[in-house]
Design brief:
Helix content is 86%, strand content 0%. The chain is mainly α. The chain has one domain.
Length: 124
């Protein structure tokens, strides 16, 4: 079950990295960036494309090498601050675009799944 969760993370990050790499103007607009300077485009491509591709690799690596607990630590270390920051931002700047809400719900679910899988492993 944990390996499937880690592979799911890898696929989601790979898809998101691809979307951000090959359609950066569309994805930027979908999450609320009205326009980006050349520096902003460089930063967007690097973080939303490159970093997410790196995360996809890490999740796949931990699943493939059966380093499942380490993969869960990565997921919790990633999703916990994202969920906290996203939740605070949603409270501060509500309402937001539907894409932002879809990302938020996905992040909340992925954090909940990581915590549940971690707890299941502790109970064994």
């Amino acid at each position: 079950m944990t390996a499937a969760y880690l592979y799911l993370n890898a696929v989601l990050y790979l898809l998101l990295a691809g979307w951000c790499t090959f359609a950066p103007a569309h994805t930027a607009a979908a999450v609320g960036y009205a326009s980006l300077t050349r520096s902003g485009q460089t930063e967007y491509l690097t973080i939303y494309g490159g970093l997410q591709l790196g995360l996809a690799f890490l999740f796949a690596w931990f699943a493939w090498t059966q380093q499942l607990r380490t993969g869960l630590v990565l997921a919790m270390a990633l999703y916990l601050p994202i969920v906290l920051y996203r939740s605070a931002a949603l409270l501060r700047w509500w309402p937001v675009e539907s894409t932002t809400m879809m990302l938020a719900v996905t992040e909340w679910l992925m954090l909940a799944a990581a915590l549940w899988l971690w707890w299941q492993g502790r109970a064994s």
